[in-house]
Amino acid sequence: PVLMQDGRVWMSLTPMEIATAEPAAEAASGRVLTYGAGLGYFPCMASMKDDVSEVVVVEKDPAIATLFEERILPQFPARRKVKLIRGDAFRYLEGVKDGEFGFVFADAWDSSFDFGPWSKSVRACAKFRETRVMAWIEDLILLNLKLWACWRLCSAVLGEERRSAMNEDILNRLLRNVEIASEDDVESLMDPASLR
What we know:
Layout: E1 2-5, E2 8-12, H1 15-27, E3 30-35, H2 41-47, E4 52-59, H3 62-72, E5 82-86, H4 89-94, E6 103-106, H5 115-125, E7 132-135, H6 138-158, H7 168-175, H8 183-190, H9 192-195
Parallel strand pairs: 3-4, 3-6, 4-5, 6-7
Antiparallel strand pairs: 1-2
């Protein structure tokens, strides 16, 4: 199954989608929150686990929420454990206390270049200490950010002004307090944790 939006694939249930959501489904436990209903793979798999008591799915797109509620959710073996909330996940997260959920799976972006929603998610979940948080394809997003940072670093070293409007504001925010004075600084910058 595939959902199209503005002539392009927005959601699909492909082997890649399954493989990239599976680690989160395996890690989920307790009360689970996910945002971005998608085609339901993660909420379905998480809800079937014995150690998952509830899966709360937040979806802001009314058409996707209706599709999920009327067509997808009724097919879940453990559908009684799944609760759909129609609304903006980031507003919902403002009211969530640390520990209220045992696990949060963020999946509200369409590719590893969609830095904006990922960055917003990282900021929204930064308050969690007791709650485990995983983000869909975060390793790929961090890799792309490293490549962008490298590109900017090389441009600066070469004295060239190579910039792209694509995600420039996010990269500027991530690099605003970065000072490169040694090889260790470069290595630190390339550590994915420093870009998170």
